Amino acid sequence: MKTDIEIANSVQLQHISTIAAKLGIDQEDLEYYGKYKAKVPALDQPKTDKLVLVTAINPTAFGEGKTTTSIGLADGLAKLGKNVCLALREPSLGPVFGVKGGATGGGWAQVAPMEDINLHFTGDLHAITCANNLISAIIDNHIQQGNELRINPTKILWKRCMDMNDRALRHIVCGLGGSTHGVPREDGFNITAASEIMAVLCLSADMGDLKRRVGNIIVAYDYDNNPVYCSQLGVVDAVAITLKDALKPNLVQTLEGTPAFIHGGPFANIAHGCNSIIATKTAMSYADIVVTEAGFGADLGAEKFLDIKCRAAGIQPKAVVLVATVRALKYNGGVGKEDVAKPNVKAVEAGISNLIGHIDNLKNVFGVNVVVAINKFVTDTDEEIEFIANTCRSLGADFAICECWAKGGEGSIELANAVLGAMDKPSNFEYCYSDDMTMEQKIEAVATKIYGASSVKYSAKALQSLSMIKKIGKEKLPICIAKTQYSFSDDMTKLGRPTGFELNVQDVEIRGGAEFAVVICGAIMLMPGLSKKPSALGMSIDEKTMEIKGLF
User: Fold this and answer.
1) pLDDT tens digits, one per residue of 443-455
2) pTM (two decimals)
3) Pick the CATH number of 439-521 from 3.40.50.720, 3.10.410.10, 3.40.50.790, 3.90.1580.10
4) Which of 123, 177, 214, 320 has minimal CB crowding within 10 Å?
């Protein structure tokens, strides 16, 4: 059986100008990054409202093929003669060299060139990292050069970032070595995918909106507990210059030649988990149907897509695809990761509550049309698949078996037809919470309606942060909850569909530029670490042919 990278390398890609022509994009508007990648001008003239969101049930550590299903669905729609385009996130190097892997799909449902996309791509994440750390450098230099803004070094909110999993940088001390090397203070790093600059880029409508948002970033508090904004540092335009090219969406293709915009890459467990508004609206301006995805389970990615991105962009999906796998349901039924490939209908029955919970939330909280995509693996039995199908029937939920990993677009025809049917049905979309609620009310709305919690418990630090947020007039912002992706709760061991638990809020961090607040729950951290045997240890490159092995 070929690996993902071997499959990708076996396909002769079309020149990116050919892919652009399928969308009606003139080659004169392309900024080429080789033969198969290009940046295109952003376009905010949507000609379609047929937007499809792909999300999933709570995953195992191996992922459940949500991006693979998104790609397969787009290829399936293209095989049905539809003018379709993808809008996906960019991968982070942290997971690529860690355990989770990249974000280019798998098998015969991939976007390409997969090595380029999973590694440095067009440099967007590096530009975001640079822009973030430019602000950090300006903050420390401002303090060193007299501190005119009276920034309190113990109340600096802005952290440095890097696009790698590095737990040693979560908490650091900088400015050591004497007075010529800066003012000593505590600092820390977030991974680039969780940085506010990433969120700002993904939620901005254009360059003017990006500059406005960068200026509104709260970087610190002064000695009188007044917020200090990025605009006060005088660095807004320099940050915007750094992000000038990164703001443009990237055009690539699937292995079957379906156009795909890949732009922006926030995680969904510790950030808002959606590709850029610019890329989505550009895709909606060129294609008749746009397929996009949101990270991890529907309790995280879909909730943030619907409550944050849709609110900011003024869009809403016509249908939501909920990816489910037999192995994830077994895992939620109590089976260990090492045994999820073994036939076990009883475990599927025990874990089916997880699927039921996500269907219920999407249909009854958000009012969207749901299609369950049963992402079939070769180890799944007919009995296991039929149990899931019968559950969907009993709930009145549309479903389809998807075999895009093994068969590409051909294996997604059933799903594509189900999605086309769902988009024609009326829906009653609404947000989980209203704009006029307080931040505590919004947190409790998501906790009780989506997660199934009975109450919310705030740490002393969280209460102090909420008090400060209220004081500076930011309590009406949307919320972005950071928690484990493996459970509806903030405890990764609570599998299935837990209810009646207490959601533990450790802190609330304001994001003035992104225009939401990050609510940190449980033991989640904004800088991941590497496992004992990260994927980086199994990679190799031939010194003559430059062929990469072990990437995926």
Assistant:
1) 999 999 999 999 9
2) 0.95
3) 3.10.410.10
4) 177
